[in-house]
Amino acid sequence: MQNQSRIVVENVSPQINQGTVFIKRVVDEIVNVTADVLVDGHDVLQTSVLFKHEKDKKWSEVRMSPTFNDEYTASFQTTKQGYYSYKVEGWVDYILNWQHGLQRKIDDYQHVNSELLEGTELISSLVDKVTQDEKDYLLHLIFIFKNSETYAEAIKEAVSERVTDIFKKYPQKFLTETSPEYKVYVDRKKARFSTWYEFFPRSASEQESKHGTFNDCHRLLPRIAQMGFDTLYFPPVHPIGEVNRKGKNNTTVAQDGDVGSTWGIGSKYGGHKDIHPELGSVEDFKNLVSKAKELGIEVAMDYALQAAPDHPWVTDHPDWFKWRPDGTVQYAENPPKKYQDILPIYWESKDFKNLWKECLDTLLYWIDCGINVFRVDNPHTKPYYFWGWIIAEVKKQHPDVLFLAEAFTKPKVMQQLAKQGYTQSYTYFTWRDSKHELIDYMNDLTQTEQREFMRPNFWPNTPDINPFHLQGAPESKYLQRYALAATLSSNIGIYGPVFEQMISDPIPGKEEYYMSEKFQLCHYNWSIENKLTTLISRINNVRKENESYQQTNNIKFLETGNDQLIAFYKWNDDKTNETLTVISLDAYNSQSGSVQLPLYDLNINHDQKIEVEDLVTRNCYNWYNEWNYVELHATLPFHIFKINK
């Protein structure tokens, strides 16, 4: 194919999978675009980023600036939810090319009468495109360029900043070359910054051994709000199957009175669009959602696409399950875990269109009940393109809806789910414990292309995971893990009150809770206030007050000279909020070291004083040097500093 353009545009960034996957931002976030743009010879090259929201008719344009080695950069802000398109355009700008050549000749003390006349022709092409004031100025230039008596003024104005600005404002584009279009999807701000608290409503009763209700949950909402959580996640609240119901501690035979696993969804009382009768009614649920919203808390629902053997789907839609010759369905497995109380969906069913429609209708039903956040159970065991379709369909009607992928699986699988549209993802943080592991993992999330499409959500524990390092651990370990999660990642969550009450009895040799709440009612003293609840509340408030902790990607790890001390610098986009965090990874002993300040990033001199304010203790310290001594004790194993310059 013949192409007369002299411009090459390549290596446009950010882009994922050659532009087949959209990148992600939230409202008011910045997209920094770079591209390699080349032209033959020595002519003046100009290049721009063009961008527009999906509802805009016209493209907006921002001129790119050169960095080095033919790379150019520019940025634009995403001010509305939905899709934006962006592309890079390059061209030889002949009027700037003329001006550049003129400047060189003037600097060489050459006479440029002929060049000025050439300039009048170029300027004449702009006269009808500019404002009246600009037009008067350009007509004056044409006059003085043609008049030998005004030569001195002419050569001064020809290379002036004023005329250059006009040339750039009204570019003369000829034989432009444009990159393919790329897309960015923009979510509401909660996609980037959220603080989750998980508990089982059935364990909310004040009376031991009594099944909790949604009405019981009302008294717990102020506590959760006071601790600084803005998202309350409930495990499934639907009817629980009676066939093959699990007993306590995941036993395969239930005894009388066993309540079963909340993930064994469906019974004679209904399925995914129904409420467990002992929790209350749909109206009770809506009232709870409304009350939580008044306190600044969004309720997140569990979306688990699976069915107990007595789920209505099994009899009403048998084609949605894969039947064996003996008339049974193989129960679900996610090795090494076995779910004898659950039947997996047969995604290759010939009736898949009705299956997909029902899955979508289920989401839309609960959205109509006031739910805008879903935690999705084991999405990696369902087809990727199904998720791409259903998330897109929901977003068309309800752009505020967010999806958290609960997929503790292979890295590329987790990444693919994010590429299909998941808003946030659980991560390996739960198991990353050493300094080397934490830094490597954070660099993987924030310094590679993952930063463009995968938003991590750090959980120190979940009902499924009682990590070895928390089993029997002291209070300082819990403090350390929460501080790490809350300052490294802008999206975090805990399973409580198990976490803050340090309940950690395991099944021996496994990362599972003994007498797990997944299979039984638990009774808690919800009025307990301890050091953990106090500091969790304080850290959550620090996160709300400091924008640098409301994002994950702007992070730089600092030297400490001690493998038991991890330190990092974070900042918001315009660097009006800068923080420095130091955390001891030793839960038993004091640790000390010297933290190296990032002088260049802070834009300060070697001997310039800065004040660091501990946002937890409110103590302030003056630092005068690049290296500064810190000492942390197990009783309070972290400093969360705000940097004041």
Give the CA-based shape: globular
Largest sheet, order of strands side by side? 19-18-17-16-13-12-11-20
Structural class: alpha/beta
pLDDT < 50 stretches:
none
Proportion of residues in β-strands: 15-25%
What helical percentage do the residues reach?
Answer: 25-40%
Radius of gyration: 30 Å
Average pLDDT taken over every residue: 96
Number of helices: 16
> Main sheet, how many strands, which sense, barrel?
8 strands, parallel
DSSP summary, beta strand count: 28
Note the gap between the termini.
Answer: 58 Å
Task: Describe this protein's structure.
- This protein has 645 residues and is of the alpha/beta class.
- It is 27% helix and 23% strand.
- The chain has 16 helices and 28 strands.
- The strands form six sheets. An eight-stranded parallel β-sheet has the order 19-18-17-16-13-12-11-20. Strands 2, 4, 5, 8, 9 and 10 form a six-stranded mixed β-sheet that branches. The chain has a six-stranded antiparallel β-sheet with strand order 21-22-23-28-25-26, with helices on one face.
- Helix 2 runs antiparallel to helix 3 (132-146).
- The longest helix has 17 residues, at 352-368.
- The radius of gyration is 30 Å and the shape is globular.
- The two termini are 58 Å apart.
- 40% of the residues are buried.
- The mean pLDDT is 96.
